[in-house]
Design goal:
The protein has about 325 residues and is mostly beta strands. The chain is built from three helices and 21 strands. The chain has an eight-stranded mixed beta sheet with strand order 6-7-8-10-14-13-12-11, with no helix packed on it. A five-stranded mixed beta sheet has the order 2-3-4-5-9, with no helix packed on it. Helix 1 packs antiparallel against helix 3. The chain is globular and about 40 Å long.
Length: about 325
């Protein structure tokens, strides 16, 4: 019992330290602007964010843990257009969402990731719910397909999900000091647990991730900044983010020229951050299929994960402080 208490307290101590991280965010780029503010009082912990693939000017979000399986469609002024319930779903710890378009039908598809696990392996498996995007924006209860997942190398916490629009493959990005990108099987099975396998490294403590609409890149958000990658996992550039209370979400705009990023809290803002022109791939990217099959020969270095020396120093300082707090608490609970 004491060991469980220590683990819980350790997570709490680390969370307190991480809450101060946005203060170290890099200066804003030219063109960064507040896009809108969520006006619905029911949106108190916006954790996932996605752009509608079929309704122009519509954005989706959902709350974090301890909430109902609910998501919201809002307009470009942050006003809720419709509220949807996901039938038969649980909301143990919803942390992310993604939106894609079915190439065969042109219908929008929404994905909701119940993948949070603050005890890094407490749950035997995690879930992702697939919901067909509603054709009309009015309150409704929508059916869902549930896909269960487990990690090939053991349970872990995660807050990022993304779908490659070219291949349709689902990826989960873990939230760890040594984070990783995990690929789901090409064909998902709803009748059994699907296995997530590590394909490359990710920046430390990733809070969200998203694929570009054309599949040419993906982005991983952390408390400090965002990093753009090619489908192969090669770093393109690091993008400065606005200072937020708790950076939680990220998505590409419909044209792929900017990023949208949000935070938790009542009436929380969503910012639009242009992607620098020199950060957009100028040459053809490696084949997504080959990139997914190729396993990295070694762990990604801090530079490859979009990490600067300043970031490393900050995280080391936080780790030392957290260790001190945990040691103190451990002695008190003996």
């Amino acid at each position: 019992m004491g060991d469980v208490v220590i683990r819980v307290l350790a997570v709490a101590a680390a969370s307190c330290l991480l809450a101060a991280a946005p203060a170290y965010a890099a200066p804003a780029d030219d063109g960064m602007e507040k896009f809108f503010t969520f006006k619905d009082p029911a949106i108190t912990e916006s954790s996932g964010l996605a752009v509608s693939p079929t309704h122009e000017g519509v954005y989706y979000t959902h709350n974090d843990s301890s909430a109902t399986p609910t998501f919201y469609a809002v307009d470009g002024q942050g006003r809720t257009r419709a509220t949807f319930q996901v039938q038969g779903a649980q909301a143990r710890d919803w942390e992310a969402m993604a939106a894609t378009k079915d190439p065969a039908t042109g219908r929008g598809v929404l994905w909701f990731a119940d993948i949070g696990d603050n005890l890094d392996g407490a749950w035997p498996n995690v879930s992702v719910y697939k919901v067909m995007e509603p054709r009309t924006l009015r309150n409704a209860a929508l059916p869902a397909t549930r896909y269960r997942f487990r990690y090939a190398d053991g349970g872990r916490n995660a807050e990022g999900i993304m779908i490659n629009p070219k291949t349709g493959r689902l990826y989960v990005v873990s939230k760890e000091f040594a984070g990783s990108v995990y690929a789901a099987p090409k064909q998902l099975r709803a009748d059994r647990v699907n296995v997530l396998r590590k394909v490359t490294g990710a920046p430390i403590m990733a809070t969200d991730a998203a694929y570009a609409p054309d599949g040419s890149s993906y982005v991983v958000r952390t408390y400090f900044s965002a990093t753009l990658f090619r489908p192969s996992g090669e770093t393109i550039a690091k993008v400065s983010m606005p200072e937020l209370k708790q950076a939680e979400s990220i998505a590409y705009t419909a044209d792929g020229k900017a990023l949208l990023t949000g935070t938790e809290g009542p009436r929380s803002p969503v910012y639009r951050v242009p992607i620098p022109g020199d950060a957009r791939p100028a040459t053809p990217t490696p084949s997504p299929v080959r990139a997914e099959r190729k396993e990295p020969k070694e762990e990604a270095s801090p530079a490859a994960s979009g990490l600067t020396a300043k970031d490393v120093f900050i995280w080391l300082a936080a780790a030392v402080a957290a260790t001190g707090v945990i040691t103190f608490l451990a002695r008190r609970t003996r």
